[in-house]
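hi! just following up on the protien thing from before. the input was this:
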Amino acid sequence: MKIINYLYLKFFISFTVCLTLSFTLFYIFSILGNLDEKISFKSILYLSFLNSFQILTYVPSFILFISIIFLVTLLRINNEFSIIKEYLSKDKIILFFIPIVIAFTFIEFNRYILSEKIENNKEDFLNSNQFIDTKVIIAENNIKKTYVILKNVDIENNKIDEFHKYEISKDVISGGGYSNEVEFKDQILKTKNYTKVYDDIIINETDEKVIYSNLEMILVNNLIIKDSKGKKIINFNTNDLIKIVFLIFFYISIFQILFNKKTAYRKNKLTLPLFYSLILIIYFIIISSFKVNLYDIQLQVLSLILVLLFFYKNFKYE
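and the predicted 3d structure came back as:
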């Protein structure tokens, strides 16, 4: 038990060092990239701070990877790694991985949500001291995502020049609408000239109709407004389950590669383990960004099978 606690302490030190160095590097480059912005230097520092956190949400796998490398390096300095490998079985070492793996799986699975929250904070900060006459209202449910764009909004005179609507389902635009004759009254948008598009069919409607209601949201001075009405807090499906299982065994496999017997001794080089783990991470990045709507779940299942085989091979022949 003391050895496990010692490993957790070493990992915490490694993770803290790598996270701090990565954040500092991202922060410096973010400041340099924001120097051209027409805002105060204090605002640049704050925006760069948010940008750095947002970048970290994109690369949890990389942060874990360099943390493990740093951990292995620390343990190899005084030959602690070889002693740990002698006293701990491979089952106990995997048990040591599990809490870390679960934590990073949670972060990876929710990284887009975390990034979106940071992005909202950035937008709120940038829009807090300036007038915005264009509004983008985003409404999302479990079936589709709707973007409503209102151009040249004049709240005092109840005037909106243009209304644009886009409906997106499964990353494909499925419908939309447009009008440049909009009547804005009692927080309701009406028009007698509305062009509707659905499944590549264009329909021109000349009868008076309500095209949007509940417009009290546009009173806030933000460019982008989120309307989460109709969206479930929890939306868990088969793809999510496959992804979680994949992430768990993916992270365990990374640990296995860098925590094997060959890396335990200082006389052995880390070149091959680093190469194999990099290949696995590159594979993960490719399958995460590669989406095919028709065979998406089949590809996910295939990826899961491959990573399970990789885990089994490492576990059996360790």
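The chain has two domains: 2-120+235-316, 133-220.
Confidence is low (pLDDT under 50) at residues 230-234.
cheers
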